[in-house]
């Protein structure tokens, strides 16, 4: 068993992690969390996105423990995984930009004083509700929590409430918005 006060080499830590040693896993997290978290931040992402990417990176590490060949290069391996997921996140964000910038602002004012025609607001609300009713329950619950709840909740609270892994909130949100957009476009035709 790894003593949590003794710093092990990466090879020793990975070997201990493969054998189910929780203290070794904690050491790996403590040793590399700043490195992994800093990569998305350097690319200009916010702390929530950086936390999502860090979660994904360490989840991939956990799933790949038995496949790692170069245990001594763990820092480089983690940095590469974090960088690749940062790039993917940025790519998805660029693809999502028209959806977020064009469609969602029309939805948000429904819950404030937008000064618009109440009939138009009602029709828009009905249109969005119809779209939400046609997507799966997980997506519907996530989108309602993110965009329609009056209380702002953190990704961590949302993940716990919806029984989703923290690192999957952002990617799941993107897929759900894309599904909703497709449904709304079909309903509009």
Q: What is the class of the largest domain in the CATH system?
A: Mainly Alpha
Instruction: Assign the CATH architecture of the largest domain.
Output: Orthogonal Bundle
Order of helices and strands: HHHHHHHH
Rg from alpha-carbon coordinates: 21 Å
Number of helices: 8
- Average pLDDT works out at 78
| CATH domain fold name of the largest domain | Rna Polymerase Sigma Factor, Chain: A
Contiguous low-pLDDT stretches (5 residues minimum) are 1-6, 96-114
Instruction: Give the CATH superfamily of the largest domain.
Output: RNA polymerase sigma factor, region 2, helix turn helix motif
> From the helix content, strand content and strand pairing, which structural class follows?
mainly alpha
Fraction of residues in helix: over 70%
Distance between the termini: 63 Å
Question: What is the percentage of strand-forming residues?
Answer: under 5%
Shape field: elongated
Written overview of the protein:
The chain has helices at residues 10-18, 22-42, 47-64, 74-107, 118-133, 137-147, 155-162, 169-188. The chain is mostly helical and 189 residues long. The longest helix is centred in the middle third of the chain and has 34 residues, at 74-107. It starts with 9 loop residues before the first helix and ends with a helix. The model is unreliable at 1-6 and 96-114 (pLDDT under 50).
